[in-house]
Specification:
347 residues; Rossmann fold; DNA Methylase, Chain A, domain 2; 2 domains; two-stranded antiparallel sheet; 9 strands; 28% helix
């Protein structure tokens, strides 16, 4: 039984690559960002459509799925409006807020056999998510969702994501992670074997293994930083003005190093920047490279993000990497879909 998927907000292909690893054929990915085209097509092998999902119709999707296949509609609608990093800002008027409604519209128009959706856990408290679930249930889907702690799925990163599964053919549940805390993958296991880098340099054999240049003051700061420590380890003269305020005590996870023998913090779109989180390398005096950020997201070391010879730019690639669904989490979800389909066929 062939299972084929369309990824509505495919990005660099993290969700699709995980589904592919689970044996699901990803036939197409859709994204408004054209920089996603190369990594999606090169690593996933499906067709990339540079489109806004709001302009995509159900008939277009139905034409992409092969006949007589089990159809999966997948997607991770942009999560920025729901991110905890927005610190309580009212984001309800942002254009991205309604993209989950567009996902629901396409479900109603195509009635795929299985639906999977991934986002930040905070979305589970929002009306737009409840409306999405209600839409699925009115269409006859069995729906289940849970908050997934990524280290329990083999991802070397303290990231938590909401994952939803829905099926027209019976009960389906999001898999629980099976990796025990004492077996969580660590930063050392994931990136410890990469070549050493100086800040501002690039590995000649892997253009993505590139570290951002540090200012003189940030180089002095990282030299005084300890793995797992805070800015309190620095000479007081190096502390930023915000650290000298009473409220500065709350900013303990910026300008900091990762620890070798734990999972990394959540990889964000600015994970290449020493000052935006605990993104200092555990040992070398630099921020983590783009390749290291991708590997901590559980992309394989050889995953291709840019065409040969193309410039490696921090901001667009950092955005693709930080916004991606960790492929190992997606693979676990894909395996659950495949198991569910086999159970349905046997019945």
């Amino acid at each position: 039984m062939v299972i084929s998927a369309i990824d509505l907000f495919c990005g660099a292909g993290g969700l699709s690559y995980g589904l592919k690893k689970a044996g699901i054929r990803v036939v197409a990915g859709i994204d408004v960002d054209v920089t996603c085209a190369y990594p999606f097509e090169e690593n996933v092998g499906g067709r990339f459509l540079n489109r806004d999902v709001r302009d995509v119709g159900g008939d277009e999707l139905l034409a992409l799925w092969p006949r007589r296949s089990v159809r999966v509609l997948a997607g991770c609608a942009p999560c920025q409006p729901f991110s905890p990093y927005r610190r309580g800002a009212d984001t309800s008027r942002e254009a991205e807020w309604s993209l989950l409604d567009e996902f629901g519209r396409l479900v109603k128009a195509t009635l795929p056999d299985v639906v999977t959706m991934e986002n930040v856990p905070r979305i589970g408290t929002k009306a737009v998510f409840r409306n999405f679930v209600d839409t699925l249930e009115r269409c006859g889907y069995h729906v289940h969702w849970r908050s997934c702690f990524c280290p329990a799925y083999g991802v070397a990163q303290y990231r938590r994501r909401l994952v939803l599964l829905a099926s027209l053919h019976g009960e389906i549940k999001v898999p629980e992670g099976t990796v025990r805390p004492e077996e969580f993958r660590t930063v050392r296991q994931e990136i410890g074997g990469l070549p050493r880098l100086r800040h501002g340099s690039q590995d000649p054999d892997d253009p993505l293994h590139k570290s951002r240049r540090l200012t003189a003051v940030n180089l002095a700061r990282i030299k005084m930083s300890k793995p797992g420590g805070t800015w309190e380890d620095w000479d007081p003269a190096l502390r930023a003005p915000c650290h000298r305020k009473g409220s500065g005590a709350t900013f303990r996870n910026v300008y900091a190093r990762m620890s070798w023998d734990e999972p990394s913090p959540t990889i964000t779109t600015l994970a290449y920047n020493f000052g935006t989180g605990r993104f200092g390398h555990p040992e070398q005096d630099r921020a983590i490279s783009l390749r290291e950020a991708a590997m901590l997201q559980s992309f394989p070391r050889k995953y291709k993000f840019v065409p040969p010879g193309a410039p490696v730019q921090f901001a667009p690639l950092g955005r693709l990497i930080g916004n991606a669904v960790p492929p190992r989490l997606a693979e676990a979800v894909g395996k659950r879909i495949a198991d569910h389909v086999r159970e349905v066929v046997r019945r």
